Amino acid sequence: MASLLIQHASLIVSMDNDDTRWADGGIYVEENVIRQIGPTDQLPQTADRIVNARGMIILPGLVNTHHHFYQTLTRNLPAAQDANLFHWLRIHYPIWARLTPEAIYVSTKVALAELMLSGCTTSSDHTYIWPHGARIDDQIQAAAEMGFRFHAARGSMSVGEAQGGLPPDSVVEQEEAILRDSRRVIEQYHDASRCSMLRIVLAPCSPFSVSPELMRQSIALARSYGVSSHTHLAETLDEAAYCAETFGRSPVELAEDLGWVGADVWHAHMVHPSADEVSRLGSTRTGVAHCPSSNMRLASGIAPIRSLRRAGARVGLGVDGSASNDGSHMLAEARQALLLQRVLGDPAALTAWEAFWLATRGGASVLGRDDIGSLAPGMAADLIGYRLDTLELAGGAPHDPLAALIFCHPPHVDLSVINGQIRVQEGVLRDTDLPALVERHNALALALVRGELP
Ligand code: ZN
Questions:
Q1: Helices 101-117 and 434-450, interaxial angle, to 10°?
Q2: Percent of the chain clearing pLDDT 90 (strictly above)
């Protein structure tokens, strides 16, 4: 059985229920599972691979609960730099309509590389546009090649402009085809086992791009297989106005009508729930992906994540798609969460520890997992390490090494282990030719925007 030993970490922060920490700490891994953790001198001294983590802080890998990987191709489009959500979507839909299988595959790898280098070891993705033969299989292949733990959300849109929806008719799918493909990908790929590297999620896009009937059928299908469901909800006031006019309901009321609450559901954003809705989302243990950068970028608002957490909702962080962030930097997103909650006047509205909790335990809970998000025997071997002697952490790490990661914002991890495999070492992503990947990605990005694809 292959073993991996992390030794002599300056500090290990486990994020377990007791917030256990060790100086001169070690972690002993067999295959893909943590077997022992504690002071280095109390652990095995030999293993197939040994990593000397002297001078590093070791943490659980970060968990990203909302993304649209394909949007790395359309970051920072000049026409959409200063647009709110509906305007921004209308600019992007016709461009995304030209996506190809290769564009999906390459953009997935770019997003994953950024996530991995910024501390993320597990991510969900929500792709909801599948033109020209693109399939979720293209993303699953990319994640497997990079050794990344992936929750692939099979997104969809079915209500185009002709039926009163926001997206152009050319990018929506037939509902029957959506449900057929959803069933296919669950049966082909979903792995419910402990320490699974791949789970499928069903994810109709939003109230203004799918029908209530598809929402109902999709969640029934998901529940029949025991898979989670995900959508965008209560992101903007425009969406609230659309739901009031079209359904006579608020977005949260619509979700409740359709059965879209509970421990197997999470909603991206949840910027505009009422106080009563917050308490109902909490009592049903509904999940929320908080995406602070995107909410700021699109001027959507400030999600009441403190109230949501207090009410009992499961809350994690999401970088959101790369056309509204415009990065996939997971640690930076934790920092943004901290800063955004403070904007309203409370300087302790979210602490650095709470930001880490959201990025680890909170995210794991949102994705329905009890095998990631903390470091303890029996947990999946997903861990990250940052050197504490870097320029960015100078003068910060000596006072409080954990909080320094949030406040001082180091640009990349030095070590990342996913499922027991070393994926980043000495700050370098292994097994990926990044310059070649970026070159191809940029060529595809230009071709996509210029209308030269497919
Ligand atoms: Zn989104």
A1: 130
A2: 99
